[in-house]
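Researcher: Let's try something more involved. This one mixes different molecule types, so please make sure each is placed in the same coordinate frame as the others.
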Amino acid sequence: SQWGEENLQALSIQEGEDVTMNCSYKTYTTVVHWYRQDSGRGPALIILIRSNEREKRSGRLRATLDTSSQSSSLSITAAQCEDTAVYFCATGTNTGKLTFGDGTVLTVKP
Amino acid sequence: EAAVTQSPRNKVAVTGGKVTLSCNQTNNHNNMYWYRQDTGHGLRLIHYSYGAGSTEKGDIPDGYKASRPSQENFSLILELATPSQTSVYFCASGEGQTGTEVFFGKGTRLTVV
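Model: All components are placed in one shared frame. Result:
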């Protein structure tokens, strides 16, 4: 598998808290995608980080990429109930194929 | 807005039967993909295509065929469905370059009994 973490993880937090999700990958990549999947829907891209960016921000989202340790993280600041979803990291190739990790189920409680 | 439409959304099939899942995209993307997602796991690539007439094997192609008759349409075919193919299937399209977004459909839930 491309990804070191094989099992779906679950996180449960209170609204307003910050949360960080981590992924590690085994083979070289220049791009890490973070996708969000809502119940009954397909995944949707929320942030993409390249190897020359170390950190990328989009609204309350912050992604990091450490190519030396082959790991990436996604942080959500001041989480809201609507952030409840499954979050996946994925590496991409030059053909556009994505290899997904198993994901993190995030539940934000009011 | 990028649009990928899958049909049917739900399907119950009998073991040994033939199943065809259809996908249509209006993004004019060259590349299309079929993934399956099993409970508690990420998506795994079954087949993909670079354009009309092309199909390529992904990471888990056994038991599946694909067909890309046009730029817009990409089908996944299970010639002899088995219970192990019970899963949720996602079609996607993309430009096919590193670091570009891949757009997913809403998925087809297939149950093989």
